[in-house]
Structure formats: C-alpha cells, structure tokens
C-alpha cells in the first residue's frame, strides 16, 4: 500500500539555524499538508498546498516558515531561523482530492529538536 | 470550525467491544464526521467517516445519531494494537470551509490484556 514518507526521522539543530524537513507524498495525490505536534499537545495544522501554491496557512505559519514542491515527488517545509519553541513532531500529509469524504494520509513524522 | 467533545480517556479489555463517543451538537447539515487515530509515536491514521447513515469498514463501525449531534466509533473486538488516541473531526462539504483537519485532544484508549 502506498504511504507518505518523511526524512529525517529525527533532526537536531541549534537555535537560529535553518532546517528543511522532507516529505514524499503518495504519488497521485494533489493536496499536501504540514502539521505539527508539540510534545503532549494537540496536532496543529500549519499549511496546506495545492497546485504549487499555499491554499491555507495557520497563524503558526509565519515568515520563518516556507513550503516548496521542488520536483514532482518531494514536498518540503523550511524553517529559516529555528527557535526553541519549534521543537515538535512535524507530520506531512497528502490526499488525492479536496473534499469532505477524502482521507488524509499522514507520514510517520520528523522529530525536530532545537537546542 | 465546528467543535467536538470527547472523553479524555477510556479503558477496555482485549477482545471486548469498545464504544467511543463524540458529541458535536453544533454540527451543520453538510459536515462529515471523520475519525482518525494516533498510535503511540506515529502519525494520525484515518479510521472511518460518515454523513448520516451508519458505516462499517474493516477497522470499525460508525454509529451516527438521528439528529447527528453525536456519534460513536465502535471497535468490535479491541486488540492491544488499538491502543491509541482517537479523534472525532468534522469536515465541511467542499466550498463550505477549510480542508484542514482540526484536532482536539481526543480520547486516549487503553486496552488491557
């Protein structure tokens, strides 16, 4: 069964450094998402992406964040200057179509630790 | 975003049925009811969804109240692998709202051997 993959599984970085989290969505899917989950807290929506542009973003997704689909398979989340509070699990998700009956398929996540 | 209310935690014994409730009294007529779960140290995983009628799939059943103000996820025979946090999420029809998933705290299900 096709699945969403994410790399790396764990990223450790120093505060102020740039990080890029990578995702490979399921190949025929059209909508892509990033969510994050701070330890012990809820899963929070960051951004959705369709047709090579952001379709929605949350208040968390400020100028320090960006997303890109650089080729036909990868979907990346960049944090330009990491803060301690960016430490969290970051989940990528994809779905084939937009709509209320559509399923979002999540990757296993990248644990980001900012020191 | 329409709000859902779930118990913080529930406990079950292995191979027994589990009924996980969700209240969504402010649901709109076009909202779909989705359930996702998150196993420990994993990403969320789709379980089931429905609109008005009860639904069954290989993972679970979804019972939707006639007034749609509540629903119940039913695991017919819980296994240890079903221990997870279960989320009830409302998703509006296309054009009626955002496509994002809004997660609450969910219900943490513990399955005892």
Core attributes:
heterodimer; A: 115 residues; mainly beta; seven-stranded mixed sheet; four-stranded antiparallel sheet; 0% helix; B: 113 residues; five-stranded mixed sheet; 44% strand; globular
Written overview of the protein:
The complex is a heterodimer of chains A (115) and B (113). In chain A, 0% of the residues lie in helices and 50% in strands. Chain A is built from no helices and 11 strands. In chain A, strands 2, 4, 5, 6, 9, 10 and 11 form a 7-stranded mixed sheet that branches. In chain A, strands 1-3-8-7 form a 4-stranded antiparallel sheet, with no helix packed on it. Chain B is mostly beta strands and 113 residues long. In chain B, 0% of the residues lie in helices and 44% in strands. Chain B is built from no helices and 9 strands. In chain B, the strands form 2 sheets. Chain B has a 5-stranded mixed sheet, with no helix packed on it. The chains are: A mainly beta (115), B mainly beta (113).
Question: Secondary-structure map with pairings?
Answer:
The complex is a heterodimer of chains A (115) and B (113).
Chain A: E1 5-7, E2 10-13, E3 19-24, E4 31-37, E5 43-50, E6 53-57, E7 65-68, E8 75-79, E9 88-95, E10 105-106, E11 110-114
Parallel strand pairs in A: 2-11
Antiparallel strand pairs in A: 1-3, 3-8, 4-5, 4-9, 5-6, 7-8, 9-10, 9-11
Chain B: E1 9-13, E2 18-23, E3 32-38, E4 45-50, E5 55-56, E6 61-64, E7 70-75, E8 84-91, E9 107-112
Parallel strand pairs in B: 1-9
Antiparallel strand pairs in B: 2-7, 3-4, 3-8, 5-6, 6-7, 8-9
